[in-house]
Amino acid sequence: LGQHFKRYRRVLSLAAQKRCQAAAHKLFETQPSIFPSPAPLLDLRSLRKSQSAVESGLSLASDPAGIVDFLDMINNLKGDSGRGYYMQMVIGTPGQTLNILVDTGSSNFAVAAAAHPYITHYYNRALSSTYQSSSRGVAVKYTQGEWEGELGTDRITIPQGPSGTVTINIAAILTSEGFFLPGINWQGILGFAYPLLARPDPSVEPFFNSVVRQTGIPDVFSLQMCGAGVSASTTADPAGGSLIMGGVEPTLYQGSVWYTPVLEEWYYQVEVLKLEVGTQNLNLDCKEYNSDKAIVDSGTTLLRLPGNVFSAVVEAIMQTSLIEDFSTGFFDGTKLACWMRGESPWRLFPKISIYLRATNTSQSFRITILPQLYVQPVTSIDGTLDCFRFGISPSANGLVIGATVMEGFYVIFDRAQKRVGFAVSTCAENGGVPFAEIAGPFLAEGVASDCTSGVPLREPVMWVIAYALMGICALVLIVLLILLILPCRRHRDGEITDESSLVRHRIK
Ligand SMILES: *[C@@H]1O[C@H](CO)[C@@H](O)[C@H](O)[C@H]1NC(C)=O
């Protein structure tokens, strides 16, 4: 069988191989995983109560007053997994039209407000009569890239979104580093996560909270990203997608929707119970899959896995795929793999399944991605070779269900009911064969009742502990000082002031 499969992988000529590697190098230097999210600096817990109070009132079942027409929103996105999916927005008065990246892994709305070599135009605040500065600075660091700017508010409309004008917080980006990249066609970023991630603090109301509060649409949005199987290097005709604000559009998915609870409202944090490569269970302690968190993030290109999990997946793929002597450079992202045109390599790779906790917590369901989603075409050479990259990478800050996986599904961010839904997307298929599958329910017994506790503490908690320890140290020092000073002074009665003598008498 091994011999049979090997036949499909042609040995490249040395020259082609070199070009292929050069291409791989270029691609991976610029874009392994573009916008993973800012690391939190606050104690997120203390703010949780007020947050859920805000959201609990919102569970409208359907369109309240014709504010939302989902059909208008279909195909309102452009882009691909490598450079992100963006939507057109009109900012200020008179309106300035900009393309804005959709990112479910952060919570600020930020747009370029000054020229930058990699963007074509920017938001000019001086030309907007409705812009109001709040004279506060703001800075956000992503896993890749960072920016600094000024906070303010302005009015916006979304041509293919809910009708009406909304006043929202805007961060005007004045300087940035590694944030705007060559070849992107967007000028700003729209963070759809919860207020706890907003910078400089959660009082800066995120865009979608403002939209829900001001228009009355249900507190739900959903995303269909349609770049699967499309080469990420073709700029001419970017793939599309849909961001439905206010609900769920049935024509964007097939089969049923499975929901997983949002564990904590900061990122869209979910609980992963199990991973399978082909039919092989990785059999790791389920806490490893959620270390230190598992999130759903449209602004991250790849499926990112904690180090141990990544190694286990690569190991299992190498066993299952029957591709011997397959270059490890492919899996660590430094090399592309190329096949003769027309020889689809996808048949050589296994499916990968992620089991998520169902809303009935004693059950789970699985989302399955076919190799068409994680072995991604990026470029071709001489018109005879097609080259692919590996759509999975290791992560030091948790599991990220990024665009690689999301492109197979219609993903519903049901904030009103604190859950994220998955259904097979209508746009992820080729010749009637879908690139993704979904199945359930499975019994979650045998899996720990909680796969998230006991993982390393999150950064904000560490800060609280650090400050608490510092406080205790300071107290101990003060007590020690008092104990040291007081006995000495007792021998020098003449020098004591009235104040300290009070203390002295009490010690007696
Ligand atoms: C949850 O799942 C368990 C196991 O399948 C089942 O016995 C139970 O009835 C379910 N609970 C609800 C509320 O559906």
UniProtKB/TrEMBL annotation:
One of its GO terms (biological process) is membrane protein ectodomain proteolysis. Glycans are attached at N360. Its main location: membrane. Residues 85-423 form the Peptidase A1 domain. It is a single-pass type I membrane protein. The keyword Transferase does not apply. The active site is at D103, D297. GO terms for molecular function: aspartic-type endopeptidase activity. It comes from the Eukaryota. Pfam families: Asp (PF00026). The chain crosses the membrane at residues 461-486. It is found in: Membrane. GO terms for cellular component: endosome; plasma membrane; trans-Golgi network. Keywords: Aspartyl protease, Disulfide bond, Glycoprotein, Hydrolase, Membrane, Protease, Signal, Transmembrane, Transmembrane helix, Zymogen. Disulfide bonds join C226-C427, C286-C451, C338-C387. CDD domains: beta_secretase_like. PANTHER family: ASPARTYL PROTEASE-RELATED, BETA-SECRETASE 2. Belongs to the peptidase A1 family. This is Beta-secretase 2-like. The gene is bace2.
